[in-house]
Predict the structure.
Amino acid sequence: MGEFKFIGKRTPRRDAEAKATGSLKYTYDLEVPGMLIGRIVRSPYAFADIRRIDVSEAVKIGAVVVTPDDVPQKPYNPRLISIQEATFKDTYILTYKPRYLGEPVAAVAATSEELAQRAAESIRLEFERIYKPILEPLEAMKPDAPRIHERIMKGDRWIEVENNIAARLDYEEGDVEWGFEEADVVVDRTFKTGKRYHMQLEPKAVLVIPEPGGRITIYTTTQSIHNTRILISQLFDIPESRVNVVRVPIGGSFGSSIQTNYLVPIAVALALKAKKPVKIAYTREEDILDHSNFVFHFKIRIGARKEGVFTAAEFTNVLDVGAHQVQPYPLLGTCLGWFVSMYKWRNIRYRGLAVYTNKVPGCALRGYGAPEVQWAVETIVDEIAEKLGIDPIEIRLKNYVGKGDIFWGQGPTVKSVIRSDGVPELLLRGRDIVGWNRRGHPQEKTGRFRRGIGVGRGFHTSGAGGPISGEVIDYTGCILKLNEDGTLDYITALQDHGGGTLDAHVKIIAEELGVPPGLINIASASTETTPYDVCTHASRGTYVGGECARRAAQIVKQKIVEAALRIIGKAVNPEALKIGYDEELKQPVVYIEGSDTKITLAEIARTAWQRNWGTIGAFVTYRATSAPPSFTVYFVEVEVDTWTGKVRPIRVVAGADVGTPINPDMVEGQLHGGFAMAWGMAFTENTVYDQDTGEIMGRGLITDYKILTAADVPAPEEFTVILASTNEPTGPYGAKGLGEAAMNPAVAAILNALYNAIGVRFYELPVTPDKIIEALRERGDLGW
Amino acid sequence: MIVRFTLNNKPVEVDVDPRETLINTLRLRLRVKSVKRGCERGECGSCTVLVNGYPVTSCIMLTIQVNNADVKTVEGLVGDSLFEKLAKSFIESGAVQCGFCTPGILLTAYAGIKQGRIRSAENVKEYIGNLCRCTGYVKIIEAIARVTQEAHE
């Protein structure tokens, strides 16, 4: 790989100034004349039948009201990433049968927030029956448990729901019984996670503007403008050509808007009825009722021979999906995929069940099951290494799925061969930097403060592409055009959640064309002006979107050269012409090497315009034929206060194999943020439900949902980022994705470090101080 | 109730219900959109504004409390040399990701440095209580520390 001009350089993101000065508008900031404010009426019970909704008071005070009678009553799934035949539909825009506390049952719109709130509060719900909520999947699966759903749709046909099982996926490869017989050591563990909340800083919001002729324009917090359009078109029977969804800057997401959030169709219903623009913005407490993660229950059994080679693995995965499906079915596939792609188990059996409960519907949260699976696997692998007396790094190097192996992180229908692999480099460099050999044994550690060092290794895919079309939709598209003055417009439907995705695309285009990034404009985007892109998710923004942009730039470059040849005339063929930045002219030029002949890009663009040659541009639609793993390795040192049970991070070495880093600042930013989120998952983050009422304890107040503050993270000088010197041949300039890999194995590293400090393993998250104190007390080892 | 205060160096007068919060006055009446609503519980800090130079969460302050006070948001600090240095440091060191928390953190850091409460790189961590979900704070701490060092050199 030669020297790059722009790629790999630290460059400030172009929207940073607008963000720092507060001039960038997010959805909640938008206002249009005559706009009404919408509020949602939610069920106060977790599982009930409503007899009647009395809206008379709300109407009296001038509000526009919608109830289940006013909206299309067809089941839908808000997440349209899977193909239709693999999409499970059980959600209604508004319902008489709420299945979780907080489910939308009616909505109002009025001229002010206060009036809307008054109208919402005036609505009376008469209940036919209130059921005791079912909050645990293992209870919900019992044959005598009440059924949360009776009939749902899979694709376009109705199916019966049995034992509250929303979806299932089983898989078997090899001979598992024989594999366990061959094993010298077998470890069998049960794991359970918390129900985490995304806590993106911007609560979800939407603005719907109805227009004459039956058109509607939608501004909303979404990771996929196109899937939002398709969903609204299908739900309301409006042709896609009359629904325009506009991309708006988004204040973080982390998977919470892969699906179209529930407030979007509600706002559409209100706007269509009111024939006026309607804006709805969740309060923070409503946002917690809109989305949170799944709860993962794992039972994992792994066998290994004494030389440290695995012989068999058995994995039972019970997902608590909450009251509605935001596509847990593909998550059953990815959990299996993450598991299988971690190590060579040789013989495996998997049983995956997605089960309904009366909780907030679970959806993807950064990693789509990978942080959870990798925590469990990396815990057991550490335990096996200890039992066999093998160094944890050695056992990982011996068994991991790496270069040349088949990788299927995104599930059984998304397989590809691994072509770049920085695992050995990251493990060995990280080991030296963290000082692995000074970690000692937990038995040797005494006193109030005890330190431990742990390792976690994992990955995430870059997108969900592959050589064969499977159950997951994954393709993108873009337009790149040369303007009449030699600048360029880049048009894509991809979103930037904050990670700098679109800036990365600009650098890739600049590199390919040989023009400064400043000449390339990231155009505003909406569904009617962009080719389809499935969603900015699955760490595919840079890898899939970036390669699409590069291909467009390649075409544009060729057309520029052809136009230049028409002007210059004397070169033998287009290949004799090069594009480069002319330091004297301070602009890009097309030139003939070894000659004085050159022409500026601006002149080419102007000539093409003035002589009616037409626009120089490209329209590309692209599907990646691979979904390569970005490997990450975390080494973490923690300190445990055995008096209080508090744990703090001392040192972090985050290693990432992202192939070619497009912007090291953004790469580091993902790792810093990923670590902080992992720490929250390990120790603090959970939404706990009242077992009698099904209400989130603390009523979902943010004050009870603890994410890290600046005071809790390691000092910047104690956070080291190392990047593998790899190159991904299928990625743009060798790049892979990172957003999720940046977090995935960090939880495992943190909890392996906790074990190294105090000699206790925890199998249920989050590991709160009381659990640590209790474990130490049981052992009679409180340090005082 | 008539409330008069200075907003970004200009006198303003609003007629508000005594229950109205400062964030709503700023966002809905005076169209100052840099003040972000993240929680309305005084927890996240996205709605931070400076009142007489002190950072406060405007979602739990009543507008009537700022009668005769000096209120500043990032819009009013454009051109201020310390603020520009901070903003530049954030932009150049990758401390801005989704940007939703950025105006609030910049104001908190600005007040901290200005009032001498942030004295060194070490106490940046303790001083900044605003929440950020993207950055893990590392680059934010570095960006503030860089300006703190310069300010005290």
About this structure: The mean pLDDT of chain B is 96.
